Hints:
Layout: E1 2-3, H1 11-21, H2 30-43, E2 47-51, H3 54-65, E3 72-75, H4 82-89, E4 93-96, H5 108-121, E5 127-129, H6 140-150, E6 153-157, E7 165-166, E8 169-170, E9 179-183, E10 196-200, H7 203-212, E11 217-218, E12 235-236, H8 247-257, H9 260-277, E13 283-284, E14 292-293, E15 299-303, H10 312-321, E16 324-325, H11 337-340, H12 350-356, E17 359-362, H13 370-383
Parallel strand pairs: 1-16, 3-4, 3-5, 5-6, 6-9
Antiparallel strand pairs: 2-10, 7-8, 7-14, 9-10, 11-12, 13-15, 15-17
Amino acid sequence: MIPYGRQDISESDIAAVVEVLRSDWLTQGPVVESFEETVRRHCWAGHAVAVNSATSALHLACRAIGLGPGDTLWTSPNTFVASANAALYCGADVDFVDIDSRTYNLSVPALAEKLERASRSGTLPKVVMPVHFAGQSCDLEGIAQLAHRYGFSVLEDASHAIGGEYKGAPIGDCRFSSMAVFSFHPVKIVTTGEGGMAVTNDSRLADRMRELRSHGITRDPGRMESRAHGPWYYEQTDLGYNYRLTDMQAALGKSQMGRIGEFVDARHRIARRYGELLADLPLILPWQDPDGRSAYHLYPVCIDPARTKASRLEVFGKLRASGIGVNVHYIPVHTQPYYRRLGFRPGDFPAAEGYYGRAMSLPMFPGLTEQAQLDVVACLHEAFGR
């Protein structure tokens, strides 16, 4: 089986983890801070906070912003359910904004129209969470202009996008947002096994996340209510969580960050080759906005019904039967049973649903060999009868 995504682990990565295993610190040690500093510098951000998953990072970021009961978060329906779930964990409501038909990211014109209606009805969101689908940045500048006009916070779900760029700067520099969140799952650009991180330029948000990731406990005397205590003393100031990342995971992530440029360059080479090899097939290939450089976490293609009678199900089945691990990203969140029980219905966001009905993610990872890519392309030609 050729998977749609796969981690790339080097001997240096293994050595970095082994070094931690032989040290005195397996968790809550210095390597976590070193990994945070590596990511912070890469993103040109002021602060970085590592946690055990991107889902945890999204949850803590929502908490740090102050999202809670009575508030609403808007996000894209073309994402993994964790993007929307993070708001529900805070007791807030969720709504969605339809996607752009070229980038498959949140549509800024659709957002502007929805905000105008919400302004008139007094139902503006507290947070808008754009999702950088497949590694390509949303139109953050356009979203930031709307945020200034309507007074909401912008929280980037950049789970797919570390190593990408937007308007000449790394995704995660937070010029146009309060925070950005990355994922380090094994199929992402770099991995820690499981893990996530939030970056921000706001020290108060970073401090709040650090406290919440470890049970809401502080050892900082300046943040304690009591003034008479010994050096062993700590205080729980809020209801937090155990969302900590281990030093073993951080060591792997820091080592991987040393190759992030190689990883993204390899993904671009694979994408360019797909573009050449698939040009004659009835597929809509990913469009890339010239304002940015995608991290190419995914390579999603859409079957073009104007040029073939083959269905997505037929093509998908033939590829899987041939050992090609294609996948589909994503089933629109609002169509999931849980969200239908919240009142959402199929047809609410037609662009996202239309994309979902035709999309497949082809294998995309740095270790994908030229021969394996040729095998993928040959299977696609066979599936379409070419």
